[in-house]
């Protein structure tokens, strides 16, 4: 999947939601990460074609989705955060429509393994937030489409369902994905190219290999971080430190830290 | 596209007819019309019969059409979240828009047939006004149906439902007030544009009023063509705007 953006800006009234977005990548699974209000959903909306950029140009596989919306809708399916369903349609009605235009193996995973079948008689407004998310994921992942756009796909889901659906996305699905998340571990699990947004601008983009070139580690803190570690950023129970593996391994053995891993997409907090 | 449209129409057919609400509306409509019909049957004079027929057309265009239209609009006016979900599920903006239009047309069809049958019972008793009144029942809803569909572009069900009730009540009423005012001042000759405007806003009542007050109204065939043309333009604009122009942020 080729995603290209040239000087994309999006303005709502007087506020810029996106500023000078430039992307030129060819990847199967792109993950967009950023704090609340960083412009992730706005960028996804433009990629899906439901929103127009205020200026600049964005194309996916060679066409501008907001210009050729019909093609975009055919080739892409989408999951969005906190859906509000207000019509009295039953889950089995969604399933019936999907049976006509979907990958049946995927439907089988959702219907029987994830257990959506148990919800078949429920009306959409009666569903809990997690159940609504499952219905959305079933729709987006199973409908025949080349690109799946998932905005916070695992929000409200339990770990068991995250495991089943995440593994489906990571190993079984042949589609391309553009995913947003707040969870760095999810991003690193599913993505092969990362775009980090903050306040509407891209602060970093690249692969995990790009991040790993530096001697930076994420350290899982046990109560308090040892004072001799040079900390670049601290985020609750995780800190980004500049150190070598031997020092960190020694700290683990001495039970002074819980563990460590090579730095991931949390690195962008370093710039704060 | 055809496959998508089929799925979209099936999707919009789900929950299209809210049985309890429709039953309540139809019973109310039938009670009103039955009372009028009993009175109508007892009248010996054709002129009085036409006056009752005029009252019936006022009831249809001002009282019965708005809630029927609004309840149909409530079905096709969806939240922005729901719209994105549907477009993603169906895989087409255009098919989704077309399905909405077809759904509301299917929704109002039984109501139109019911009114046609009732009007037939009234018309069959006199030989002044013919069965073109059946066509006018359809026309009396089409313009407002088109406006209501356009209101759904607002992305708010409240705006669409309240807006369609207001428009389908106030605009025919304004035509009615204008016709009544003209009759008070015994003005029968009006220019073509004014005539078309009155007919377009309330074809059923305007047509019957032309018999009662001798109002120099545009012939109903021309009026029908104007309404159909406006309706068709509104539908095309709706499908175009929905599939190409509306912005929805997820």
Structure explained in plain terms:
- The complex is a heterodimer of chains A (272) and B (250).
- Chain A has 272 residues and is an alpha/beta fold.
- Chain A has two domains: 2-206, Rossmann fold (3-Layer(aba) Sandwich), CATH 3.40.50; 214-271, 2-Layer Sandwich (Alpha-Beta Plaits).
- Chain A is built from nine helices and 13 strands.
- Chain A has a six-stranded mixed beta sheet, with helices on both faces. Chain A has a four-stranded antiparallel beta sheet with strand order 11-12-10-13, covered by helices on one side.
- In chain A, helix 6 (159-172) links the parallel strand 6 and strand 7 (176-181).
- The radius of gyration of chain A is 20 Å and the shape is globular.
- The relative contact order of chain A is 0.14.
- Chain B has 250 residues and is mainly α.
- Chain B has one domain.
- Chain B has helices spanning 2-13, 19-42, 46-76, 80-90, 93-123, 132-151, 157-184, 192-201, 203-212, 220-245.
- The longest helix of chain B has 31 residues, at 46-76.
- Chain B is globular.
- Chains A and B meet through helix 1, helix 2, strand 5, helix 3 and helix 5 of A and helix 1 and helix 4 of B.
Short description:
Chain A has helices at 40-48, 69-75, 91-101, 104-114, 129-142, 159-172, 184-190, 208-212, 245-253, and strands spanning 2-12, 15-26, 29-33, 55-60, 76-79, 147-151, 176-181, 193-198, 201-206, 216-221, 231-235, 238-242, 257-262. Chain A is α/β, with parallel strands linked by helices and 272 residues long.
């Amino acid at each position: 999947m080729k995603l290209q953006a040239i000087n994309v800006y999006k303005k709502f009234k007087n506020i810029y939601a996106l500023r000078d977005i430039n992307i030129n990548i060819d990847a199967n699974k792109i993950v967009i990460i950023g704090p609340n209000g960083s412009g992730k959903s706005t960028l996804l909306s433009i990629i899906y074609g439901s929103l127009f950029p205020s200026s600049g140009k964005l194309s996916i596989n060679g066409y501008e989705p907001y210009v050729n919306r019909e093609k975009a809708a055919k080739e892409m399916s989408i999951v969005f955060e906190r859906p509000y369903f207000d019509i009295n349609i039953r889950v089995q009605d969604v399933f019936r429509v999907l049976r006509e235009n979907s990958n049946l193996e995927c439907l089988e995973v959702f219907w029987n393994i994830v257990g959506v079948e148990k919800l078949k008689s429920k009306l959409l407004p009666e569903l809990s937030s997690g159940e609504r998310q499952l219905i959305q994921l079933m729709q987006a992942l199973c409908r025949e489409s080349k690109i799946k756009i998932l905005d916070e796909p695992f929000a409200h889901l339990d770990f068991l369902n995250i495991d089943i659906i995440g593994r489906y996305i990571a190993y079984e699905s042949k589609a391309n994905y553009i995913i947003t998340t707040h969870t760095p571990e999810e991003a690193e699990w599913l993505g092969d190219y990362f775009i980090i947004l903050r306040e509407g601008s891209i602060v970093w983009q690249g692969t995990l290999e790009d991040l790993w070139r530096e001697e930076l580690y994420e350290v899982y803190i046990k109560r308090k971080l040892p004072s001799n570690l040079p900390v670049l950023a601290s985020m609750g129970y995780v800190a980004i430190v500049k150190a070598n593996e031997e020092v960190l391994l020694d700290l683990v053995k001495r039970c002074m830290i819980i563990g460590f891993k090579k730095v991931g997409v949390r690195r962008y907090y370093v710039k704060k | 596209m055809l496959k998508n449209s089929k799925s979209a129409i099936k999707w919009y057919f789900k929950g299209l007819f809210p049985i309890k609400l429709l039953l309540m509306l139809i019973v109310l409509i039938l009670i009103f019309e039955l009372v009028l019909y009993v009175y109508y049957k007892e009248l010996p004079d054709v002129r009085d019969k036409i006056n009752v027929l005029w009252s019936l057309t006022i009831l249809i265009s001002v009282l019965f059409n708005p809630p029927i239209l609004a309840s149909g609009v409530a079905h096709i006016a969806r939240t922005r979240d729901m719209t994105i979900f549907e477009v993603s599920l169906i895989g087409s903006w255009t098919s989704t828009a077309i399905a909405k239009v077809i759904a509301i047309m299917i929704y109002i069809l039984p109501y139109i047939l019911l009114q046609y049958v009732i009007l037939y019972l009234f018309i069959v008793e006199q030989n002044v006004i013919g069965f073109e009144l059946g066509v006018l029942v359809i026309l009396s809803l089409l313009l407002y149906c088109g406006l209501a569909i356009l209101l759904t572009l607002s992305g708010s069900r409240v705006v669409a439902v309240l807006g369609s009730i207001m428009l389908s009540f106030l605009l025919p009423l304004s035509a009615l007030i204008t016709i009544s005012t003209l009759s008070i001042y015994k003005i029968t000759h009006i220019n073509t544009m004014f005539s078309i405007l009155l007919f377009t806003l309330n074809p059923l009542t305007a047509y019957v009023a032309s018999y009662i007050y001798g109002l120099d109204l545009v012939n109903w065939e021309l009026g029908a063509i104007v309404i159909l043309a406006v309706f068709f333009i509104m539908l095309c604009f709706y499908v175009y705007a929905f599939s190409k122009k509306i912005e929805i942020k997820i």
